[in-house]
Amino acid sequence: MTEKRLTREERKAQGKAARTRVPLEAHGEFAPAPGRDPVGLLLSQAPSRVSELVPIRHGRMLVSPFTYYRGAALPMAADLAATPSTDVRVQLCGDAHLSNFGAFAAPDRRLVFDVNDFDETLPGPFEWDVKRLAASLTIAGRDNDFTTEQCRAGVLAAVKAYRTALREFAHMPMLGVWYARLDIDDAVRGLSSQLDAKRVRKTEKMLAKARTRDSMSALSKLTTVVGGQRRIISDPPLIVPVEELFSDMEADALATMINTLLGKYLGTLQSDRRHLLRQFDLVQVARKVVGVGSVGTRAWILLLEAGDGTEPLFLQAKEAQISVLADYCGASEYDDQGQRVVAGQHLMQAASDIFLGWQRTTGPDGIERDFYVRQLRDWKFSIPIEQLLPQGMAVYAGWCGWTLARAHARSGDRIALAGYLGKSETFDNAIADFSETYADQNERDFAALAAAVSDGRAEAQSGL
After folding, report:
1. 372 vs 3, higher pLDDT
2. What is the pLDDT of residues 35-93, one digit of tens each?
3. The pLDDT of residue 192 is above 80
4. With bands split at pLDDT 50, 70 and 90, how would you rate the model's confidence at 226?
5. Average pLDDT, stretch 437-461?
6. How far is Cα 281 from Cα 385, in angstroms, rounded to an integer?
7. CA distances from 27 to 93, 127, 331 (A)
8. Helices 8-21 and 414-421 sit at what angle, rounded to 10 degrees?
9. CA pair distance 139, 66, nearest whole angstrom
């Protein structure tokens, strides 16, 4: 029998009823649990990573409290699990800090703004993403020497945009929600009433530059010609061709693994995209260190060329491990963690990379690992957070809030969510309170990691 669907009024009532379990004001609460050990949680991730890269991860985290926060998704997941939970579930990004939003090319070649990192995606309570975004705004604002009031204004801009967008989505047809997206050109045109002309022009120049960031630009930056052949430039330990990492036998085994991975991965793409990718041949593979929290997971950049050798394509095959949310939200329905990432990305993003796919493969060490594959560059662009002024941060925060609401409206019950959040600013202020308290905790955790490096419990390599 087909399950009876609730009416709009029943769904709205369910959302309002959740306020009885978790009042809106309760989201302002945070108290560290007894025996809390964020450094221990971070170190627990090291055994599954490339050992010589783990100190680079810690070194990147110790640049500032904000870079620490970027790498500390697991400690925050543990903290959020101890906060009041609505259990109004959506597909979570799992790491929705403000640097994990940005612009990239949609398949129709329009520049869109969206969430762009899904390594930790998993279903869970909607407020976890909101709290991670909000705390990141406060922490980044402090790093930029904003006042407390300016930091709070950024958080309130994000949460208000999230709440009001969900109310709008609740009254839209589902297909309308599905097709909604933030077009960067339209958004920049709307900035003229919020920012001065100089700032608008600077933003337009950055976006124009983003449109040049594709495989051709990557080719000039990442490769050179040696003996008539295009080769990836070695820049250890950040970019290292496989033939420099391993012996000839091991490098051959890894090349075989990558070719096998590509062959199987093709089966996860649409038929037209399989046809397109079959026009390219693999030329070379290199290991690349990426991000902050991801450092140490296996990430390979793959240089491919079309048959005549004049058309490059860079793909990235990135290892997908179990989400940091899994111990607190439950295991993924997908056994393959690469498929988990791709499915979550397709569900949350308005438009995804045409080459986004996944596959499990066995490495030269005999260990099975899951990967997802995408283009290395396709107009990808992130706002330089450290250059934002308070007014610009608030505008950017609004973009992030609207985008997160759209992602949650696609995967969760948008009507129940809107019913829970309501019309008042109670939720907004509670999240702002949480973000200030958690930013204080983050500073203590940053100091704890620095102390762990100082006393030898952890190792860090700076400058990389």
Report:
1. 372
2. 999 999 999 999 999 999 999 999 999 999 999 999 999 999 999 999 999 989 999 99
3. no
4. confident
5. 98
6. 37
7. 19, 8, 25
8. 50
9. 6
Per the prediction, the chain carries an average pLDDT of 91
Handedness of CA 165, 167, 173, 174 (dihedral sign): positive
This prediction's pTM:
0.94
Between the CA of residue 302 and those of 220, 261, 324, 374, 397, what are the distances in Å? 15, 11, 27, 10, 34
Find where tokens 């949609």 sit: 106
Q: What is the structure's pLDDT at 211?
A: 64
